[in-house]
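Hi R.,

Here's the input for the coenzyme a persulfide complex you asked about:
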Amino acid sequence: MAFVLSEEQLMIQTLARDFAREVLLPTAAQRDRSREFPRDNLRQMSELGFMGMMVPSEYGGVGVDTVSYALALSEIAYGCASTAVVMSVHNSICCEALVRFGSDGQKASWLPRMTAGECIGAFALTEPSAGSDPSAQRSKAELRGDEWVLNGSKQFITTGRNAGMIIVTAVTDSGKGHRGISAFLVPQGAPGLIIGKEEDKLGLRASDTVQLIFEDCRIPAGNLLGKEGMGFKIAMSCLDGGRIGIAAQSVGVATACLDEALEFTQSREQFGRPVSDFQGLRWKMADMATEIEAARLLCLNAASLKDLGQRYSMQASMAKLFASEMVQRVAGQAIQMHGGYGFCTEYNVERHYRDCRVFTLYEGTSEIQRIVISNNLLGPPTVPK
Ligand code: COS
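And here is the predicted structure with coenzyme a persulfide in place:
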């Protein structure tokens, strides 16, 4: 499938590429070491329109399509994967959930601040005992007077500490299974919201991942997102878009690995010639480039189906599954081609190898993507009576 990009899509890709390579890349290793949240970069990205990419202009967004967004996100991930995951959750899940399910008042109140980068979004679905099976979550929300009161805890929340607003799911009717889960807009600083342990992670170290604890956390009644009982569907449908985002991040990091490998192997000489002369490495390079191209097309295909308003859950899962597994292979090969240098922190491939490891885990593991894909092919498995 030939993928012809419009002038506008190419322009957005170039804008993101220039920013990622000139601003993000030179400081990414330092951020990885210091674990400093990329607040300043995110502010600059909002000025370029990257923090409200698919949000209509009336709310301060740039209202571009998902293809443009995926292209931009890949470029940002090329420069700094920690920054990219913040951009991804903010755009694909939080802004998207508000645009699709928010009331006019909620959109007017939150989106302009989110697109301006003043309020970064986080998404809290996972719990300590409910990861792949979010319908088993235990956090509860109860309407008391004109407030919702939330109790429970959430786990592995990207940007949980630095977000201005967190979309939180919680059980509002325990007798209804997934149809008893609702979604809420929880402002940072809401009374009873406690930022718990921050994870010390293998990669994406400049993006905070925290536990959130809700102890009689009170938010206004008007902060229910969508209708009561819609929380699971809101989460699942926004995760479809989120999975396109993870595919895009995978393509970006894999492309960075390939570029590093191309550069290193052409300058590294052994046996009297650049190691890029050896067919063993040349063919590996060819395979890496081919896999990246395949992942890129799967990602753009899912994005364009979404843009066309067609069903795209299966294609988003395919893109996420293939791209996130592809980048593991590509990053591993890039290290191999660097020899011992690839194992050292002076070389970017060492960071890429760590950063990409979570891609097969978050926003649905590879195993979950296979469930989504096979359920689309076969329907759900039969349950013995
Ligand atoms: N879009 C909209 N609605 C969806 C949907 C989607 N992509 N996928 C499922 N739903 C709806 C279904 O239509 C169904 O609704 P009704 O009962 O009203 O018809 C409901 O959600 C439940 O669907 P299903 O029975 O398929 O849900 P399961 O509990 O079996 O879960 C999986 C399906 C495993 C695919 C889902 O739980 C999942 O994606 N898990 C991984 C979660 C995840 O990615 N976690 C990471 C968190 S972010 S780091």
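One thing worth noting: The first strand starts at residue 121 and ends at 124.

Cheers,
M.
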